[in-house]
Every structure is written in C-alpha cells, then in structure tokens.
Specification:
InterPro entries: Homeodomain-like_sf, HTH_RpiR, RpiR-like, RpiR-like_SIS, SIS_dom, SIS_dom_sf, WH-like_DNA-bd_sf. The chain is α/β, with parallel strands linked by helices. It folds into three domains: 75 residues, Winged helix-like DNA-binding domain superfamily/Winged helix DNA-binding domain (Arc Repressor Mutant, subunit A); 35 residues; 141 residues, Rossmann fold, CATH 3.40.50. It contains twelve helices and seven strands. Strands 2-1-3-4-5 form a five-stranded parallel beta sheet, sandwiched between helices. Helix 2 crosses helix 4 and helix 2 packs across helix 5. It is globular. The relative contact order is 0.13.
C-alpha cells in the first residue's frame, strides 16, 4: 500500500475510521475486532487476532497492509512502543490464584475483578470531559428521554431508566417487546439515548438512523471508533471493556451510566 504506516495510536484510529466503511465483510470483521480489542494487539499473535476476528490469518495480514503496515509485526510494534510502561501490573496474590486455583470460583473472581479494574482505569483516561458535559446538557433539557439498549446493553438501559424514574426524570425504556420499536413516540423536544456494543444491535442502529433523520438529538453509549452510531450526528460517549475469556463485564459501562444518570438528575433539579 502506498500510504505510510500510522506513526502513533491517534493516526492508527484515524486510518481505521477512514477505511472501515469500504472494507469487504471479512476485513470489516478485522476492523471491528481490532477497534474493540486494541489492548490485545501488543500481546497477541496474528493467529490469535485472526481467530478473535473470525477470519483466516491471511485475511488479517491483508487488513494490516490496508492500514499501511508491512504486516502484523509492524502494527504490533506500534502498540508495544505506545503502551510500554502503561500495562497494568498483576499482584502476587492474583498470580498465585491463577497458578494454583485455575478455574475455581476464587480465581474467576480475581480475573473478573482485574478486568473490571482495568476497564475503569481506561474509562477515566479516555472519556472526553466536554463530550460528557454535552451529553448531560442535551439529556437534561429533553422533554422526554427515550432509552434503547438491547441484549448485552439491556442491563445498562434498564438501570438508567430505573435511576431516572427515582429522580423524577421523564424517560421511556424501549425494550422491543413484541417486535415494536415505538419510534413514533419520539417527538420534537425529546432526546434518544442509544446504547450498543459490538456486535451492534441492528434494532438500535435502525432507531438511531430513523430518529436522526428527523433531526432529533441522539446521545450514544458505544465502544469503538468504528461503531455504526458514529455515522449519525450523535453525542458519542465511548467506553471499552477489558474481557476475560469469552466474557465481557459491564463494569466501566455501568459506572458511566451511573455518572450520566446522576449528572442529568442533578442538572434538572437545579
């Protein structure tokens, strides 16, 4: 590829955004996986990354070249150099649990606690303060807040709905029961709060598209820089969760949901 390789993580993310929409299906899988798992690039093999993306290693290598790298090794080197010294240290006790009690409940607890801690630390470092303020401002001014978050996002959406109810903030939770999206209930003066993570809910994306086309503001909680919600003019709050095995917790996401709920409730009561 003629383009020079990204020189830093910011350039990498910009390149990923530029190319992701035009990629064929298999390479788009690579883009989605990389965007959601940038923390894995520095410590994984190309075979492991390809397996995570659900593609052949040759396809993942092609993806690397499309981004401007000579191959996976060059892309990995960028992340190793950028993250050197910033990887979280594991305590002696955690190592002991992993080595001596693998698969036990106490070992799993240690793993998930560590993943949650890393997710929370990442949220604190990466959340944009102005975007968070803009999201709170938009939601606090809304006549009605419409909330949608399905499947893995549903616990987050239902918690926000519960919190708003307790703080007397007018809100409606769209659950998709019976296949009804109820998007016609969203009126001028309302705001849609949409929550979805990779693999993204088609129903949530469709609602955001329909509502945005009507000029109704959208606040989005999502995970990656290639999230389909970014195609719309939404106020986007990004949150990334560190997973353990095939399971991904909601530690950072629920923390952000609590912050958003309390900040909106506080602002409306002023």
């Amino acid at each position: 590829m003629e383009d020079r390789a990204p020189a830093n993580i910011k350039q990498f993310e910009e390149r990923l955004i530029d190319v992701s929409e035009s990629l064929p299906k298999r390479l788009r899988q690579c883009a989605d996986y990389v965007a959601a798992n940038k923390d894995r690039i520095a410590v994984s093999t190309v075979a492991e990354m390809a397996e995570g993306a659900g593609v052949q290693p040759s396809a993942f290598m092609r993806f690397c070249r499309i981004l401007g790298f000579s191959g996976f090794s060059e892309m990995q080197r960028l992340f190793r150099e950028s993250y050197a010294g910033s990887w979280p240290d594991y305590s002696t006790r955690l190592k002991h649990l992993r080595e001596k009690a693998e698969g036990s409940a106490s070992a799993l607890l240690a793993e998930f606690v560590d993943a949650g801690r890393a997710s929370l630390e990442s949220l604190l470092k990466t959340i944009d303060a102005k975007t968070l303020d803009d999201a709170v401002e938009a939601l606090a001014k809304a006549q009605m807040i419409h909330i949608i978050g399905l499947r893995r996002s549903f616990p987050v959406a239902s918690y926000i709905s519960y919190a708003f109810e307790k703080m007397n903030v007018p809100a409606i939770l769209h659950s998709g029961v019976g296949g009804l999206d109820n998007h016609n209930a969203i009126r001028t003066g309302d705001v849609l709060l949409a929550i979805t993570f990779s693999p993204y809910s088609a129903e949530t994306v469709d609602m955001v598209e329909a509502v945005s086309a009507r000029g109704i503001p959208v606040v989005a909680l999502t995970d990656t820089i290639v999230s389909p919600l970014r195609k719309f003019e939404a106020i986007t709050l990004s949150v990334s969760e560190v997973d353990f095995g095939a399971f991904r917790s909601l530690s950072a996401t629920l923390c952000l949901a609590i912050v958003l709920s309390v900040a909106v409730g506080t602002k409306r009561s002023e």
